[in-house]
């Protein structure tokens, strides 16, 4: 670990000033500290933002939910409003990490966490995300756990967050504070595809700070859930995951929100699956035909072709669970 200075921000203004001067924000520290220990990250200054008043969960006037950036994963998952309105979010959080990490890790930090690609975390390996222009060792290396959607010639690393998959399905927005004021960015636009610049992972401006996540109101009743397939039952990242939210009226699906994790360089919205579902009556045949579209556009690598069928099966299973006929 390299030397660094540590300061505590007592209010948002102080945090933003420190951020503008090159400081890196830290709260739970469950990802950043590991990366610093492995010398993948070498910040000169850490800014502790844990004293900021960002630990809240509120139901908005229209029936959505706002979650403060410093709410822990455990507290968000257990919050009655989130469990009642968006069980897909609670499930995604509870299937993440370990109980000890969930007690420390925050909502903002979860969205900002970096890939678990072994080449990214091995400072002797070529990685454009860590060292732009150095190449991508995963493309020609062992890539069983890597992405099949949203990849580029520069990067094939998967996004690790389960929560972000659920938030993507629900059209959530990330609230940001910066030197020019506050703004709100759809999470689908906040998390960036690698393209030719995989080192730029979020649409953050210099010094900006995540203050909250907004989940908008959706038609009711809304049934939702999260399914995660992995090599072991706990403390493991997804090989494939599906976040599903469905609203039906008059026996017909009126709203369908579906996103996938473990297979994309960012949480992957399954728009073709959604379009196939809307306006149709739930049935076993519908879930199967919709799931066949889940891997549309996939570009498998040498060792992860199995993810195409795994993703389709995962989506079909969760559609059955959420929509019925499971």
From TrEMBL:
- One short Pfam name that applies is CO_deh_flav_C
- Record's superkingdom? Bacteria
In the record, what terms sit under GO molecular function?
FAD binding; oxidoreductase activity
Keyword line: Oxidoreductase
Give residue ranges for domain FAD-binding PCMH-type.
1-220
This chain belongs to which protein, by name? Xanthine dehydrogenase YagS FAD-binding subunit
Task: Please tell me the species this chain comes from.
Answer: Actinoplanes lutulentus
What are the top taxonomic ranks of the organism? Bacteria, Bacillati, Actinomycetota, Actinomycetes, Micromonosporales
